[in-house]
Design goal:
The protein has one domain: NADP-dependent oxidoreductase domain (TIM Barrel, Alpha-Beta Barrel). It starts with 11 loop residues before the first strand and ends in a 5-residue tail after the last helix. The chain is of the alpha/beta class and 322 residues long.
């Protein structure tokens, strides 16, 4: 049920443009949300409208990535149209390249590359679009198997970026997120922590990274939650919503997305929860979760919905780009 906004340690709801910068993505319901309107200029206009709505709703963290198609370009264009806006933090990510060529039926949509050469190449591309507005730069999907958390040469270059005033971090995915987070927290350059922003998947279906994220916050890192609505499984009207979550949301008289995002905001280590909205109404509903205080005991009920992490991630990898 809705109540007055409670004091939160972070900035509340942010906006990610993963679903707006390219025509295909793995979120449920894209056919209903976007239909056939997925041309570059159509998505540029849609991204602008969503950014306008997000800013009006109080969103002050904006998240893009090199692999999100034209998301950095769309964001840069929106910022150029709003020179009066100085109170947003901009985060981007490097480590994947978008190779989908603006096709829904591409065999491959993105390719991972965590090499030092890729970092230099993609940082230059990001800087060309976002320039001094870039505040946070994450390694995109830092996992234990790519070597990115062991590469001392890369760490030294990331340290130079940190020393220029850009917060350096990682994003994580997969059933071993907690291990990646803990390994990242141990990396130091010139005697100081390198990775001080952690963007991880956490939601009521897959909360296994929670203890590691609490450790990250305790160590002074900002924790950004992504995929709080589980790629649409915790969003109203999605074709694959979770029935038990739908029932609980109805009992609380809350939209399902607000229940999911409020649960993420209720974690004491959360700095920001990203909305992946693709229209102004969705972003307004997502942002309204900042004013939701969940009744006592609801978080315990939600914990019963957690799935086995391996099964959750296995199912996620099978989601079709659409």
């Amino acid at each position: 049920m809705n109540a007055g906004a409670s004091e939160r340690p972070g900035i509340g709801v942010g906006l990610g443009l993963a679903a707006l910068g390219r025509p295909a993505y793995i979120n449920s319901g894209r056919a209903a949300d976007l239909g056939e309107h997925r041309g570059v200029e159509e998505l540029r206009a849609r991204a602008g409208a969503v950014l306008d709505a997000a800013y009006a709703a109080g969103v002050r963290y904006l998240d893009v990535a090199r692999s999100y198609g034209r998301a950095e370009e769309f964001l840069a264009g929106w910022l150029a149209k709003h020179p009066e806006i100085h109170d947003v933090t901009i985060g981007s990510k490097w480590g994947y390249r978008y190779v989908g060529e603006w096709r829904l039926d591409a065999a491959v949509h993105e390719v991972k590359d965590h090499s030092l050469a890729a970092f230099h190449e993609q940082l230059a591309e990001t800087a060309a679009l976002l320039g001094p507005r870039l505040g946070v730069y994450h390694v995109h999907s830092a996992t234990l198997d790519t070597g990115v958390l062991d590469d001392a040469d890369l760490h030294r270059e990331l340290g130079k970026l940190r020393d220029r005033g850009v917060r350096v971090g990682i994003s994580t995915s997969g059933p071993r997120q907690a291990e990646a987070v803990r390994k990242a927290l141990a990396v130091e350059v010139a005697g100081a922590p390198l990775f001080t922003s952690i963007q991880s998947t956490w939601n009521i279906l897959e909360p296994s990274a929670g203890p590691a994220l609490a450790e990250a916050a305790a160590a002074g890192a900002r924790v950004i939650v992504k995929e709080a609505v589980a790629n649409g499984r915790l969003a109203p009207g999605s074709p694959d919503t979770v029935p038990a979550a739908v029932t609980l949301a109805a009992e609380l008289d809350l939209p399902l997305d607000q229940l999911a995002i409020a649960a993420a905001l209720a974690q004491p280590w959360t700095w920001c929860v990203l909305s992946g909205a693709v229209d102004p109404a969705q972003v307004a509903s997502n942002a309204a979760a900042s004013a939701v205080t969940l009744p006592s005991g609801v978080l315990a009920q939600l914990s019963e919905l957690a799935e086995e992490p391996g099964a959750y991630w296995s199912a996620r990898t099978r989601r079709a780009w659409a």
